[in-house]
Each structure stands twice: as structure tokens, then as C-alpha cells.
Amino acid sequence: MPAVAVVGGQWGDEGKGKIVDYLSQNAHIVARYSGGNNAGHTVMNEAGEFKFHLVPSGIFWPQTTCIIGNGVVVDPDVLWQEIQGLAGRGVDVAARLRLSDRAHLIMPYHILLDQLEERSRGRDAIGTTGKGVGPAYVDKTARSGIRVGDLLDLEGLLPRLQAILEYKNKLITRVYDGTPFSVEQVFERCRTWLERLEPFIAPVEMTMRQALEEQRSVLLEGAQGSLLDLDHGTYPYVTSSHPTVGGACIGLGISPRDVTGICGVFKAYSTRVGGGPLPSELNDATGDAIRQRAWEYGTTTGRPRRCGWFDAIAARYSASVNGFTDAILTRLDVLDGFHPVKVCVEYRYDGREMRHFPSSTAQLAHCTPVYEELPGWERPTAGLTRWEELPKEAQRYVARLEELIGSPISLISTGPRRHETIALRSVL
Ligand code: GDP
Ligand code: IMO
Ligand code: MG
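ok -> C-alpha cells follow
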């Protein structure tokens, strides 16, 4: 039985939440491995519509154990809100959710610093979600982070918190002219978090290991997208973690040998929220039409998403960095009625053709897309569940994307609801 990763193939918001909810019907464990509540994963099923920021999107299936792995950074207030919201809608979160004691906490000063740092970047702002994710990962790497497990020993935590806050307060007041935090208040928050979250805290690596040894199926839920990866994305316009599949092993304490399937989720066009280059961006009526049709506004921040045609150069790069065994195509229905549909198959840079995704963000920003045009389709694909029902032109579009990505397309999503899915090959 496999561990199968679901990884964002583009710049995030590909529809991972919908796909994870769909695939979790066959999963024993569903585990988030990276990012924090910068993620917003939408799930629509019989229970209603949900937007998850931390809780794995497989939580609705009663046979699943849902894990928040060590690679995730956790804002305990956001997690608590999510748990409460789910419990209020009848989901048995207490029985199903486990939080790694090795996961790092997003502290109140991380949220403030995220906002202060963004402000000080001025025109070069990254466009972060402002949730404290970057500063929490900075502290993790600097070895001055606070982990979920530290809450279990509040006595031991207090002197560390005092030392950390002494430094953070200097940074906040002297560099950014901000308002300092009181140790007492932050410590009181820690006490509250412990009271609320203690039942969920567990050494989840053991649960993962046991499930893998017992050959049970495990779904690894990615957040963000490969082109936002700290190493492989459009640096510095990236997030501070590893959405690519390598992050799944680090972020859950499993071996690459455990991962038998790697699914890249791609939407049928491109979007990006925040700063940084998006070569196939459409700053015109077509871009606006996609945004309105697809309601491309951020799940976490409500910001309008930048929209453009599918970028096959970026997609192929993403496939090579991850080694996708499968591709999953979402939001095909959004392109219903567009004539023609276009795919970026080449960049032009400095008068020459370029077929690779450059590491230099400045270079990428000067790449212009070269498009291949394909015929659009008249009949809507929205809600279809069988390949044969798709208009011929839509089939041709999917087949061309498959060729360009270089991985077989195993699922096609034709709407936001769980059942609006065409299964071509079994993934899990
Ligand atoms: P995620 O971050 O990758 O989980 O994606 P988001 O939830 O942030 O954004 C994806 C949006 O597309 C959500 O509003 C989903 O409900 C919606 N969605 C997912 N799949 C489809 C699809 O196939 N068609 C349409 N029309 N909407 C979809
Ligand atoms: P899901 O899981 C889309 C983007 C932000 C910003 C950059 C850095 O829903 O696909 P951060 O707050 O992480 O420091 O911001 O990354 N970003 C996302 N964009 N989907 C996401 O998550 C994102 N998470 C972060 O907009 O450009
Ligand atoms: Mg999202």
C-alpha cells in the first residue's frame, strides 16, 4: 500500500483541498507536511463548504486519522478555531486529528514581524499572507523556535520565552518602531493553547511508521505550490517552506522509499497571488474573465489572484523537480466557452527562444510567452464525470497538457464538489 503525495504543481490554489477530500475516501491517514495557515484549501461535499488552513482535507472520512506534521508551522488560535468550527458542524475532530509535537508554533510576534517586514520592503514586498509563516520558519532555522511539544513543559518554556522575547522586542521596537509584547501575556496564551490542544498533541511519526508498516494507504497533503518552494520556486517571491515532494519526507519523518506516488495538481490555466513573475499573466479582458468566471480570489486573504494561460514551461519544470507519477488537472470547466484556449509552450528572452524555467527571477520577469492555440469547446464540461462526455476539443486540450507536463493525467476535476471528477486511473 502506498504513501501518495498530492503536491501543488503551480503557484498554489490548484484545488489540492478538493482533490485530497476526493482521494481520502481510500486513505487511512491524511497528513499535511508543510506550510501553515497561509494555505487555504476549499472542500465542498455533502457536509457543506469548508475552508481549511491547517486541518487536513481528509477529515470528513470517518476511517481517516488526520495528521499535522512536524514540517507545518501552527498558529494555535487558528487551529483551535478550525477544530471548533468542525466540531460545531458535527465532524468528530477529537477522534481523528493529531498534531505533531515537533511542529513549530507561529507566535504572536511572528505575525507582527511578518507585517512589519513586508511594510519595510516597500515596492519589493513579497505579498505574503501576513500570517507569520515566514518569521516562524526563520526562527525554526535559527534554532530559536518554540515547538508544540514545548507547551507540555510550561515551566521549562518560561525562561526560553523570556530570552526570545527580549530579543524580539528589541527588533520590534528599535528596527521597526513597533509595540513590544509582554512576557506575561504571551505566556498566558501558551497556557491557554496547552489547555485546548493537549489532547491532539502526539508523536505522529510513530503513527505514520506503523501505518506504513501495516501497508495502509497514506495521503500526504501538500500546501502552496512547487513554484513557491523556498529552493525551487521564484526566489525571493516564494514561501519559506518546501511544498515540493522532498518536503513531505522531511515534514513527516518518512523515507523517500515510502513514497510510491507523487501527484502534481495543476489547474487548467495559471494563477498567482502576491508578488513575483507570472510569465503568462493576462492583464486584459481575458484575464479578468477567467478571474470572474472562476472567482479567483484568495481563500486565505481574499486578494484577487493574477490569472493567465497554462504555462507548460513552468509545469514541466515542476514535474521534473517533483518526479510526478501522475498529474491531476482541475478547473477544466473554467475554460468552457473560451475561444481559442492558449498554452505557453516557450518563452522568448532577449530575442531568443527559451524552453527552460530560469533560476533568475529577474530573467523570468523578462520572459514573454509564446503560445500554442487550441480550439475551445462549445458544450460545457462543468460537472461531467466521464471522459467520453467531454467535448472532443476539451479532450484534445487535456491530452496536449499531458504531453507537455510529461506525466499521465489521472484525474480531471470539472467542478468544486467532490463528485465533479473524472477518474481515468486509480491514484490511491
Ligand atoms: P488549494 O489551495 O489548492 O486547495 O485551492 P483553493 O481551495 O485555494 O482554490 C481552489 C478553488 O477552486 C476553490 O474555490 C475550489 O472550490 C475550486 N475548485 C476546485 N476544483 C475545481 C474545479 O474543478 N472547477 C471549479 N470550477 N472550481 C474548482
Ligand atoms: P495554498 O495551500 C497561493 C504565497 C503568498 C505570497 C508568498 C509568500 O492555498 O495553495 P507567505 O505568507 O507564505 O510567506 O507568502 O506565497 N502563498 C500562497 N499562494 N496559495 C497558497 O497556499 C499560498 N501560501 C502562500 O501569496 O506570494
Ligand atoms: Mg488555496
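The longest helix spans residues 154-175.
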